[in-house]
Amino acid sequence: MLKAFKNKSVKFDSIVIYDTNQDVVSKLKEQFPDITITDSIVECANQDWIILAVHPPMMVETLKNITHAIATESLVISLAPKISIDKMAEFLPTRKIIRLIPNATSYINQGYNPIAFHSSFTHEEKIEVIQIFQALGQTFEVPEHKLEGYAIVSAMLPTYFWFQWSKMEEIAEKTGLTRAEATDTVYNTIRYADDLFFKSGMSHEDVMDLIPVKPIGEKEEEINEIYDSKLLGLFEKIKP
Q1: Which CATH class is domain 2-155?
Q2: Which CATH number fits domain 157-238: 1.10.3470, 1.10.3730, 1.10.8, 1.10.1740?
Q3: What is the DSSP string of the chain?
Q4: What is this structure's pTM?
Q5: Which of 50, 108, 181, 185 is most buried, judging by how many CB atoms fall within 10 Å of its CB?
């Protein structure tokens, strides 16, 4: 998010970061010299906007630790699945509560970021917030109960494929392509294959039938089972 805002020259009066991992904050400070690093979580909670990049099991404890320092008009933005807006409201003096599911591609301002608001927000207030977060990429309001679904099929989706793309580059080099040729080939084939699959107007079945030879086709059922068991299993764990 910091990188996305920097890319788009979005300025804030101050940015204060707290994290228990000193390696994380040190690297952030190197990349973004203008931020302030603090060892006080309360100092972060004193800001106008408070972004909680906290794992769900730690959210309630974190809210309890900062609730006394948050103003009634502060904006609290959670990046965590599972913990609902209503649950957060039990611990906070403000009702300006938002949940956002971030996407790694926001790093290059091409994120796909669903957002949900507490019922107290007016239409104008929602538009103001969304306009700021458009710096991350496509930011759009959704019903809160759909956020966990977006976490599975959008926020975490690249992790299901990135290692495979890396492996294909490696295989390409083993077949005699240079590193540059391997990268260009994998990148462009993925890009155009996506367009074919989603934008050609053909059914998914017809698209997949265009290539008669499927070297790992015998493993498709096993792979599909992995997707079902792992991803739907994870979805059940992160649902509120």
Answers
A1: alpha beta
A2: 1.10.3730
A3: -HHHHHHTT---S--EE--S-HHHHHHHHHH-TTSEE-S-HHHHHTSSEEEE---HHHHHHHHHHHGGG--TT-EEEE--SSS-HHHHHTT-S---EEEE---GGGGGT-EEEEEEE-TT--HHHHHHHHHHHGGGEEEEE--GGGHHHHIIIIISGGGGTHHHHHHHHHHHHHTT--HHHHHHHHHHHHHHHHHHHHHSS--HHHHHTT----TTGGGHHHHHHHHIIIIIHHHHHH--
A4: 0.93
A5: 50
